[in-house]
Design brief:
The structure holds three protein chains of three kinds.
Chain A lengths: L1 H8 L7 E14 L6 H6 L6 E18 L2 E12 L7 E9 L5 E14 L1 E4 L8 E16 L5 E18 L2 E25 L6 E22 L2 E20 L8 E9 L6 E7 L5 E22 L4 E4 L2 E13 L7 E10 L14 E6 L11 H10 L10 E18 L2 E21 L2 E20 L21 E14 L7 E18 L4 E22 L2 E22 L4 E2 L2 E17 L4 E4 L2 E2 L6 E2 L3 E4 L5 E7 L5 E2 L6 E2 L2 E6 L3 E3 L2 E2 L5 E11 L12 E11 L8 E2 L5 E2 L4 E4 L7 E4 L4 H4 L4 E22 L7 E4 L2 E16 L2
Antiparallel strand pairs in A: 1-2, 2-3, 2-4, 3-5, 3-6, 4-5, 5-7, 7-8, 8-9, 9-10, 10-11, 11-12, 11-13, 12-14, 13-14, 14-15, 14-16, 15-18, 16-17, 17-19, 18-19, 19-20, 20-21, 21-22, 22-23, 23-24, 24-25, 25-26, 25-27, 27-32, 27-35, 28-31, 29-30, 32-39, 33-34, 35-38, 36-37, 38-44, 39-44, 40-41, ...
Chain B lengths: L1 H12 L11 H7 L4 E10 L33 E6 L8 E23 L12 H5 L1 E7 L2 E15 L11 E23 L4
Antiparallel strand pairs in B: 1-3, 2-3, 3-4, 3-5, 4-6, 5-6
Chain C lengths: L1 E11 L28 E12 L7 E9 L5 E12 L14 E3 L6 E7 L11 E6 L14 E10 L2 E11 L7 E7 L2 E21 L9 E12 L7 E5 L5 E5 L22 H10 L3 E10 L2 E2 L3 E17 L1
Antiparallel strand pairs in C: 1-17, 2-4, 2-5, 2-6, 3-4, 4-8, 6-7, 7-10, 8-9, 9-11, 10-11, 11-12, 11-13, 12-15, 13-14, 14-17, 15-16, 15-17
Classes of the chains: A mainly beta, B mainly beta, C mainly beta.
Chain lengths: 802, 195, 319
């Protein structure tokens, strides 16, 4: 086969070693018979050759060696799908057209490709075994180019395909995959030049114009239970350059690529979740475009892992339409620009940051002795059944996101979360267990931060306001050290969907709650956050995305709540928040508030205020977040591993054991103990209602009034009560106007308009206590606080201020 | 606006310095404001009753099920807070009952602010701001809060809930506010000393 | 309707008649120079103005109802104006552009959890919640002393009767605090309230706010009130099972292991040392009013010093 390739494509062999060891052909029959005279006389001079091939292929192992390290594919087999000892057949029809184009049409009947295992340097463990069942029809046209190289076009259609990954006897499969691709024009040349390793090397240059592909998977399933279906259609154009030589040693592969997702309203990706009666609901992202450029993606085989890394990946992505469920109301649209690149600090190599992925076969277990106590027993039971020969995939990753800008557009109004940066490293293991996918992450260390918001357009001045994300429990900045163990099971609350169970621990992390781009503000530092999730299900339903939290308990222990800088800011003391919830619910639904009357009530027609108030039409787009938190009464968790409660503690006057270091539990504390919700008659009552909050979120023009007469911090003068109005849609300078007209009102500052409703039947606090360090039990000051029957609605606009 | 101001200051600073020096950290803190939000809107409590008043919800106790409209004056239509100020067993409860109404405001701000100047004492003595030299959480009061039909009742009762056995409540007085209140200035919160 | 009854047992000791100059509103006793290093959350109001009422800002309804007169007629107290503003507020007429700072960045109102074992707190092995006003340091500056005032309208059975006015100028409450802790199955506390002001005025007018009577004014007022002393004599506030309030400053009865024939405590008896300390250095209240005048007629100054409240119970009853 290697010989055939060389002759047809007329290229110099690459400077790599490809060894075929133990090739054994069992049955392969080519039916080539000479035509007898009688038949020959009937041939009308048609060009072409038809080859029918049946094959049963078993390859003991196929190895790629790079700098002496072997990556082996073991037990590679092509056979029939129904019986591994029977042949699979395919038909090739070849002809050459007038202009010298070679056309190959192939029709591949149902075939199974199977791999027993993939190992590196004969490792004890393997990546698992893979099976691919498929049938395909391809059309491939190729001809030579004037200056050397090849060009052509192809189409491929794969149908009824299944892809199965099995580790330790348990499998995960993508069922009923369909894939169609066509490339209008591809070119294949050997004239790409690369100088990035300090010497000039030549490589392959592949170009593809108008690469349109669509895919659908019938179901992603675990042991027969489906998580949902994925489908999509994309039009791309791409260029790639491939060179010999990787990042380490002399050998390996280097790859550069430039991909552009062509702007086409037909581009889409869709996830469908079928409920128990077979009705499907979609999460749909469409009308997207973008580009991704990759520089120096390298592949090397090292002594015990496959090393993949890249120097830089940058690009942009825009999704014009995002729909949830069967709604016609889009949430809005999203744009993302990002740059991941290596960072080298010439002065101090300890600050170097890279983008690297190392893939190890098998399960690399973490060092349990080095783990924090809070997570150790959960980690040990997670890896209890795994041995050094267990199959699976382990990853050691590092990343460095230099900058990203994420924009959310609601009815044409733009808000950008600007200056997103992150770096870090992690060790991950992935394997399939009995009906679940197990993902273990240890030593996920790093940080992320968001500089701030830009409103109106991408070059508007940077403003505060990322605090608004706190309502979705997204923090503006965080330095983290996380160990977490997750199990993903198929099947949500009804029918398809995903269920998650996990245990996580953040040790000694710092969380920025309200900070500016220099990291000054309010910080929770030295945070130890211990979270356990049981039975968390994600479902897409007709009216939105629903996350059902079966049971969740956590302890967030903030060593110092600081004002100012995260290292030296003055500390308020220690704050500890313990949470215990059962059957809480979070739903994200499309559509914002629509028509609203601020400071009054809407009239019957819904197009104005009845009486006092300010009418606003916030448009069709936007997002509604609906939350139900059922705070459970103190008790044992369902799996019996812990006793949990809801409790808030504030401690100060701790003893200092070294400057700036305070010892927890040595100070005086105030404790709000055992707060819980119930349905109105006390803690023995049911807890179905919980604390409910509905937030309708839109991006909208907001009225910002000057609070005093005079000149403001930016030197702009105005009188008390004047409105802040921008000079133009660039929104980089403003004036104060007493009574703006309709045109000026469209240049009001943009902010988040939230229409919210919070309600509960009863919120009960068992005791408010004070605790002294010398006495183990706290003293109760208030023996109970009972709050009932609250229904609070707000219309708030939150505008970031400068 | 933060970045624009920084550039302008740097231009002014330049000619006065012989050697090219970047602005010192402390000076940067003076110029760059902190992030923050400007909040406007209204908060309405129990305008048409609360979740326990919903007669259509069969799980609600009978004593709470009422028809609560904006005009209704039934005590059960409002929100209720009861605090036990005794030993929890033999004592009664201090209650804020029938809490209802709407608060509207424009221009409450929330931000963190670095203070290292100002707050002079009538011109004689050192500036408190310079001596303080730290960060505060500044809650800017909204100048005017409009109260619409805000009312609550101070009471005490023998048990926490109207559904508890032996419930007996005595109202002390009602407060009713409907109008504008001027509330100007800033509330500054900051940690003081020993954490 | 609640009837409030008062039972007191107050001992008045030596009345000191001292001529001190109060232009700087100096404190009367040196005892509580609080620790300047606070801990906890500091609270400062900057450029503060509060102004609300039925007669300002376009009017409205600000009333307290639900009370009854002695012959069961409904009583409604309407608040015409309640204000807090800077000095020179001229009985509530000059509020706009007249803000005041309450608390100082270096000496703020403070919310903290204190260790009860601290000498001046006197609660063993308990955490104490304390909300305190700025500590006393050479008097507050003029820009930190608000003017405060309130105008009540009294309406009985639907008929407006009188309006009562009270105005306080340049008020300072430095050194006041409230401390709370849990003990003996209930909430216990200790209170200190200091009021320093150059002028408090009271007067009453008819229902239209005109035809005002004579003004009663107290000038150069210093009030230092201390209630309770740690665990030794705690202040409690409870609601009992019948729904009545009880406010009590603990009794000293039983502090002496055995009393002598005349009810006193002899030296050497258990409990004597603590009682003696209480009498000599325990909580004491002092009041000094530089001048009391009614309608312009001056009655001279008044002083009460070293008043110790050794037992106080305030309880409400249903009629």
């Amino acid at each position: 086969m290697k010989l055939l390739n060389s002759k047809l494509l007329n290229i110099k062999p690459l400077n790599t070693q490809l060894l075929l060891i133990g090739l054994s052909l069992s049955t392969s029959s080519f039916a080539l018979k000479a035509l007898d005279d009688a038949s020959l006389s009937g041939v009308q001079g048609q060009a072409g050759l038809t080859i029918e091939q049946s094959q049963l292929l078993n390859i003991g192992s196929l190895t790629y060696t790079d700098d002496g390290n072997d990556l082996s594919i073991e037990g590679l087999r092509f056979s029939s799908q129904t019986n591994v000892d029977e042949v699979a057949s395919r038909t090739y029809i070849m002809d050459v057209s007038e202009d010298g184009t070679l056309r190959v049409q192939s029709d591949i009947k149902p075939t199974q490709m199977h791999i027993d295992g993939i190992r590196i340097n004969n490792s004890a463990a393997s990546f698992g075994d893979f099976t691919l069942n498929y049938e395909a029809v391809t059309n491939f046209n190729i001809k030579g180019m004037a200056g050397g190289g090849l060009e052509g076009s192809f189409t491929v259609g794969i149908s009824n395909a299944d892809m199965i990954w099995k580790t330790n006897g348990h499998s995960m499969s993508f069922d009923n995959i369909g894939y169609n691709a066509s490339v209008d024009n591809f070119t294949f040349e050997y004239d790409a030049i690369d100088n990035s390793k300090g010497f000039i090397r030549t490589g392959l240059d592949i170009g593809m114009d108008n690469f349109d592909f669509s895919f659908s998977t019938g179901a992603l399933s675990l042991a027969g239970v489906s998580l949902g279906e994925l489908a999509g259609d994309l039009a791309l154009s791409a260029n790639a350059q491939i060179f010999a030589g990787g990042r380490y040693g002399d050998e390996g592969l280097t790859f550069h690529s430039q991909v552009s997702i062509l702007s086409d309203t037909d581009n889409y990706v869709r996830f469908t979740d079928y409920d128990s009666v077979g009705e499907g609901n979609d999460l749909f992202m469409g009308d997207f475009s973008g580009s991704v450029n990759l520089t120096n993606l390298t592949l090397d085989v090292e002594s015990d892992h496959l090393a993949i890394g890249f120097d830089q990946m940058d690009g942009s992505f825009k999704a014009g339409t995002i729909l949830i469920g069967d709604s016609s109301k889009p949430i809005g649209s999203i744009e993302l620009e990002f740059l991941l690149s290596d960072y080298i600090d010439a002065g101090n190599s300890a600050n170097n940051r890279y983008n690297r992925f190392q893939l190890y076969p098998g399960i690399r277990q973490p060092d349990f002795a080095a783990m924090p106590d809070q997570i150790k027993s959960y980690a040990e039971s997670f890896y209890f059944d795994q041995t050094p020969t267990s199959e699976g995939l382990s990853l050691a990753t590092q990343w460095n996101l230099t900058n990203a800008e994420l924009s959310y557009i609601d009815d044409g109004r733009l808000v950008v979360f600007s200056g997103i940066q992150s770096f870090g490293s992690a060790n991950t293991t992935i394997d399939v267990r009995d009906k679940k996918i197990a993902i273990g992450i240890s030593d996920l260390k790093g940080s992320y931060s968001i500089d701030g918001l830009r409103v109106g357009n991408k070059t508007a001045p940077l403003q505060g306001g990322a605090e608004l994300l706190l309502s979705l429990e997204v923090y503006q900045a965080m330095d983290f050290d996380i160990d977490g163990f997750t199990e993903i099971t198929a099947g949500g609350a009804s029918g398809g969907g995903i269920r998650i169970d996990g245990d996580y621990f953040f040790s000694n992390s710092n969380i920025g709650l309200s900070i500016d781009e220099n990291g000054e503000g309010i910080w929770a530092t030295g945070v130890n956050y211990d979270i356990h999730l049981r039975d968390i299900t994600f479902d897409v339903e007709g009216d939105g995305l629903k996350i059902n939290r079966g049971e969740q308990w956590s302890t967030m222990d903030i060593t110092n709540l600081r004002w100012g800088n995260k290292e030296t800011g003055t500390s308020l003391g220690r704050v500890k928040l313990e949470r215990f919830e059962k059957n809480s619910l979070l739903a994200i639904m499309p559509g914002g508030a629509g028509q609203v009357c601020v400071g009054g009530s809407l009239n019957a027609a819904g197009d104005g205020c009845s009486g006092v108030g300010r009418f606003e039409d916030r448009g069709e787009q936007g997002m509604t977040v609906s939350l139900k938190a059922a705070f459970a009464n103190a008790g044992t968790t369902t799996d019996g591993t812990a006793i949990a409660r809801n409790r808030l503690t504030w401690e100060n006057n701790r003893t200092e054991n070294s400057p700036g270091e305070y010892i927890n539990d040595t100070g005086t504390q105030i404790i709000f103990d055992n707060y819980s919700t119930n349905d109105g008659t006390g803690t023995t009552d049911s807890n179905d209602y919980g604390l409910q909050a509905n937030l309708n979120i839109d991006v909208f023009e907001t009225k910002v009034l000057k609070k005093s007469t005079g000149t403001d911090a930016n030197g702009v003068a105005g009188n008390l009560g004047d409105e802040l109005i921008y000079d133009s849609s660039a929104r980089d300078s403003y004036v104060y106007i007493a009574s703006p007209d309709a045109a000026q009102k469209t240049l009001r500052p943009l902010g988040f308009a939230v229409q919210g409703n919070v309600s509960f039947k009863e919120l009960n606090i068992d005791a408010v206590q004070l605790k002294h360090p010398n006495v183990a039990t706290p003293q109760t000051v208030f023996y109970g606080v009972v709050m009932q029957n609250l229904d609070l609605t707000t219309n708030l606009t939150a505008t970031p201020i400068q | 606006m933060k970045k624009i101001i920084m550039n302008v200051f740097a231009l002014i600073y330049f000619p006065c310095v012989i050697a090219l020096e970047p602005l010192a950290e402390d000076e940067l803190k003076n110029i760059l404001g902190q992030g923050g939000v400007y909040l406007t809107g209204d908060i309405t409590i129990n305008e048409t009753g609360g979740p326990l008043n919903n007669a259509a919800d069969a799980s609600n106790p009978a004593v709470w099920q009422k028809n609560c409209t904006t005009a209704s004056t039934d005590k059960r239509c409002g929100a209720r807070i009861a605090v036990n100020a005794g030993d929890g067993v033999n004592s009664g409860w201090l209650v804020l009952d029938n809490i209802r109404g709407r608060f509207s405001f424009e221009g409450m701000t929330l931000k963190t602010r670095t203070i290292n100047s100002g707050f002079d004492d009538d011109g004689n003595g050192t500036s408190d701001g310079a001596a303080f030299n730290g960060d505060v959480l500044e809650i800017g009061l909204p100048n005017t809060i409009k109260y619409t039909n805000v009312s609550y009742t101070l009471a005490n009762s023998s048990t926490a809930r109207p559904t508890d056995v032996g419930f007996n409540q005595t109202d002390i007085f009602n407060v009713k506010i409907d109008g504008d209140i001027s509330l100007q200035g800033n509330l500054l919160l900051f940690p003081t000393g020993n954490p | 309707m609640k009837l409030v009854s008062l039972k007191t047992n107050a001992v008045m000791s030596i009345i000191l008649f001292s001529q001190l100059s109060y232009s700087d509103l100096e404190m009367l006793t040196d005892k509580h120079l609080g620790n300047v290093d606070g801990a906890g959350i500091g609270i400062v109001l900057e450029d503060f103005i509060f102004n609300g009422g039925e007669a300002v800002n376009g009017g409205g309804t600000f009333e307290i109802s639900g009370l009854q007169s002695s012959d069961n007629k409904p009583v409604v107290l309407g608040i015409s104006q309640f204000y807090i503003a800077g000095s020179g507020s001229d009985q509530g007429t000059n509020i706009d552009n007249n803000p005041v700072n309450i608390g100082r960045l270096t000496n703020p109102f403070n919310l903290e959890l204190r260790d009860g074992n601290d000498l001046d707190v006197g609660v063993t092995d308990k955490a104490v919640f304390e909300f305190s006003a700025p500590t006393i340091l050479n008097g507050s500056r003029l820009s930190e002393r608000p003017d405060m005032g309130i105008r009540f309208d009294l309406e009985i059975d639907g008929v407006s009767h009188q309006s009562l006015e009270n105005h306080i100028e340049s008020l300072s409450i430095d050194g006041s605090y409230i401390r709370l802790w849990g003990g003996n199955g209930r909430m216990e506390g200790e209170l200190a309230l200091n009021v320093y002001t150059p002028n408090i005025e009271f007067f009453a007018c008819d229902s239209t706010g005109l035809n005002c009577g004579e003004t009663v004014s107290f000038q150069n007022v210093s009030i230092e009130l201390e209630l309770g002393q740690g665990e030794y004599q705690p202040v409690t506030f409870e609601v009992d099972s019948t729904g009545n309030f009880i406010f009590e400053v603990g009794t000293l009865e039983g502090k002496c292991a055995s009393t002598n024939g005349t009810g006193g405590c002899d030296s050497g008896t258990a409990g004597y040392t603590e009682l003696n300390d209480y009498y000599t250095t325990g909580p004491a209240s002092n009041t000094y009013i530089g001048n009391v005048s009614v309608g312009g007629q001056s009655f001279g100054s008044t002083t009460i010093s070293n008043l110790q409240i050794q037992y106080l119970e305030v309880k409400s009853h249903d009629l």
